[in-house]
Structures
1.
Amino acid sequence: MQSALTFFYGLTKSVGVPSYGIAIILLTIAIKMILYPLTVKQVKSMKAMQDLQPKMKEMQEKYKGNPEKLQKEMAALYKDAGVNPLSGCLPLIVQMPFLIAIFFAIRDFHYEEQFQSFLWMSNLAQPDPTYILPVLSAATTYVQQKQTMTDNSQQNKMMMIFMPLFIGYISLTFPGGLVLYWVISNLFQIAQQWWMYRKPAETVGEAR
C-alpha cells in the first residue's frame, strides 16, 4: 500500500503538483474502482431486500408469536426471490484489509517534509487539529448508511446514530491522511450508490 501511495505521489510530482493529499485521493479512487464489482453486488442485494420489506413486515405480523415458523417463511421468501441477506456484508469484509493496510501505510509513511501538508492540514501524518475531517467522516458515514438502510427497526436507527459518532470520535486521533481516505471513500461510495439506486435492480450490474 505504501508502494501504491508512492506511485500516485510520483504521478502528482510528474505533473508539477507534488501532493500526498492528492495521492491519497487517487489511491482511494483506485481502490474503489477495484472493489466496484463487490459494490454492485452489495447494492443489488440491498435493493432486493428493500423490495421485500412489505412482505417481510406482513410475515412478521402474521407469525409474531411463532418465531420458528417466521424463520422458515423468511428463508423461503429469500430463496424464492434469489436474495442472500448476508451478501450485502461481503464488500465490507473485503474492504477491511484495505483499510488496515492503508492505516499502517499512512501512519508509518515517510513524507517529504515540504509536501506533507494538504489544504488546511500542515501534516497528514498527524490528526486534523481543526476537527473538520472527523466531522466529515461522521457526516459521510451517516449519509452512506442512510442510503442503504433497509430496515427501520429501533436497533437500526440506533446504529445510524452510534456508528457515525463512533467513526467521528476515533477520527479525532487518527492520522489526517487516513481520515481523508475514509471521507473520500465514503463520498465515492455515496455517489456510486446514488447512481445505482436510480436504476432498476436488474440493470445495476450494467451501471459502469
2.
Amino acid sequence: MSLWLLNHLSSFTLAVVLVGGTVAFAVAGSVLLRRRHPSLAEGEHNDMVGVTLGMFGAIYGIILAFVIVTLWTQLESTQTIVAAEATDVALIARDAAAFPPAVRDGLDAALSDYVHAVVEHQWPLMREGRPQYGATERSLVAAFDVLQAYDPRTPREEVFYEEAVSHLNDVAAQRRARITMAEQELPPLLQILAFGGALVLVPLTFLYGMRRLRIQVLFVASVAALIGFSLLLVLVLDRPFAGELSVSPAPYKEGALARYWAPEGPSRT
C-alpha cells in the first residue's frame, strides 16, 4: 500500500491527505465531542487528561523520533551504497584504459550494459519493491569473464588489473547491498506503534477542555498537524527507492560513466 502511494502520489498530495486528514479528523472529533458533552468545556478533567497526554506524548514522541532517525539513516546509507557502486564502475572504466584494445572494448561493453541495466531495468523493479538480481547478472558476469580471461603482461598492466578486479568485486558487493536495501521496510510492529499511536494520542486531545472553542480547536489542530507531519516523514522515508524523495540513479550517468549514455558511446550487447 505504501509503495503504491509513494509511486502514484506526489509528496505534496501525500502531505495534504495525511496531514490535512489528521487535522480534519482531530478538529471534527473535538467539535463533535464538545457538542455531545458540553461539560468538557469546563475543563474539570484537565488535570488527569494533562498527565495522561504528557505521558503518552513522551512515549509516542520517543518512538516516532527513533523511527524517523532510523529511516533517515537508512536513506543516507542507501545513497552512499549507490554512489560507491557507481564510483567503482567508473574506476574500472578508467583502469581499462591501460589494457589492450580488445580487453578494453570488451570491458567497456560489459560496463555500459551494466549501468543501463541498473538504471533502465533494475531501478523500476526496486521502485516497486521487488528487485531482481537477474536484471544485471548477465552484464556483471560478462565483466568478470573479460577480466578472468585476461592475463596482464607488463607490471603496469598488472597494477591496473589488480585495481580493476578489486573494484569489480566491490561492485558485486555494493549491488547486493543496494538490492537488500530496496527490500527493506519498517517492521510491522513499528508501523503499528507509529500509526496506531496516533489513533490513541489524537483522540486524547479531545478530552482537554477549554472554555473558548477557537482555542481548543487551535490546540487540537496543532497537535494533530505535528503528528500528521511526523507520520508523513515515516511514510516517505520508509522506501528509499520509491517516491519523490527516493535515491536517484544519477550517479550511474555522471563522470566517467556519462560516455556510456552518449549516442556514440560503447555499444551494448
3.
Amino acid sequence: MTAYTIWTKEEYQERASVVAPKLLGQYLIHRTAETTYIGRIVETEAYGGSYRRMADDGAHSFRGLTKRTEPMFCAGGVSYVYLIYGMYHCVNIVTGPEGSGQAVLIRAVEPVAGIEHMLENRRMEAVKPAVSNGPGKLCRAMDITLAQNRLDLCGSELYIARPAEQPRFAVVRTTRINIDYAVKGKQFPWRFYIKDNPYVSMR
C-alpha cells in the first residue's frame, strides 16, 4: 500500500512559479473504476502571472477569460485539462487566488502504481521513460482526459499527495520549452525538473 497525505486547499494558493518546484517529488493520483494511477511528478512548468513585471504571454490566460481557460481563473486547487493538436491532453494544477489565471503544467511523471494499466493505455510491454516522459504521454498513461477538467483537487478522483517517504533530489531550473510563440515568456525560468531523473521529457 502506497502511503501519502493529500494536499490541502491552502497549498495551492501561492503563485504558480512558487508551487511548480514544490510539486516535484509529489504524487499525481487519478482514481478510476479500474485502478488507482500514481505518478511521481518529476517535471513541471509554471504559467500565468508575471516575471520581473512582464506578463506571461506564454500562458493560456494571457488574453483573458474564455470558455477554455475558465478553470485557470478559479481559486487554486482545481484541475485544468486541455487538448492539443486535437489528440493529446495536458493536465495542469490551478494555483493562486481566484481570478489570477495561474496554473502549473505537469510535464512528466515516474510511474509508481497502476503501472500495468499505464502500459496497456500506452500499448507498451515494459516500463521505460517513454511511458510518461511528456505531458501528453502521462495523460494517456494515467487515463486523464477532458472528463477530468475543472475537478476539485481535494476530492477523491484526481489530486496531489505528499509521499510518506520523500527521497532527496536536486532541482534544475530552466526556461520553459515549446513556447517559441511567447515573445517575453519564453525567457521566464519557470521550468523545473528533478536532476538526473530518466523520466524528465527533455534535458
